[in-house]
């Protein structure tokens, strides 16, 4: 998701098997996309996430734990 000039991450519809995907996600590069608003609560399912970059976005609110 880097440098895509997308406008929302919260409105992204994840596939039905996303819980499986998020559980194994280790790196997520979301920088320079103009995302705004809160981070999706489903991000808390990424138990193995080690790196999450968000530079040049306008996220607000808490980081889902």
List the keywords.
LRR_dom_sf; globular; single chain; 11% helix; alpha/beta; two-stranded parallel ribbon; 65 residues; two-stranded parallel sheet; Leucine-rich repeat-containing N-terminal plant-type domain-containing protein; 1 helix
Report on this structure.
This protein is an alpha/beta fold. It has one domain (1-65). It has 1 helix and 4 strands; from the N terminus they run αββββ. Strands 1-3 form a two-stranded parallel sheet. A two-stranded parallel ribbon has the order 2-4. The longest helix is centred in the first third of the chain and has 7 residues, at 18-24. The radius of gyration is 11 Å and the shape is globular.
The overall strand count is 4
Largest sheet: 2 strands, parallel
- Give the uncertain stretches in residue-range form: none
Compressed to H and E, one letter per element, the order equals HEEEE
How much helix is in the residues? Answer: 10-25%
Give average pLDDT, whole number: 78
| Computed Rg | 11 Å
| Secondary-structure content class | alpha/beta
**Proportion of residues in extended strands:** 15-25%
């Amino acid at each position: 998701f880097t440098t895509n000039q997308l406008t929302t991450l919260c409105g992204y519809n994840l596939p039905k098997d996303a819980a499986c995907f998020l559980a194994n996600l280790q790196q997520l590069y979301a920088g320079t996309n103009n995302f705004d608003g809160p981070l999706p609560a489903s991000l808390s399912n990424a138990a193995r996430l080690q790196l999450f970059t968000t530079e040049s976005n306008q996220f607000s609110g808490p980081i889902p734990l």
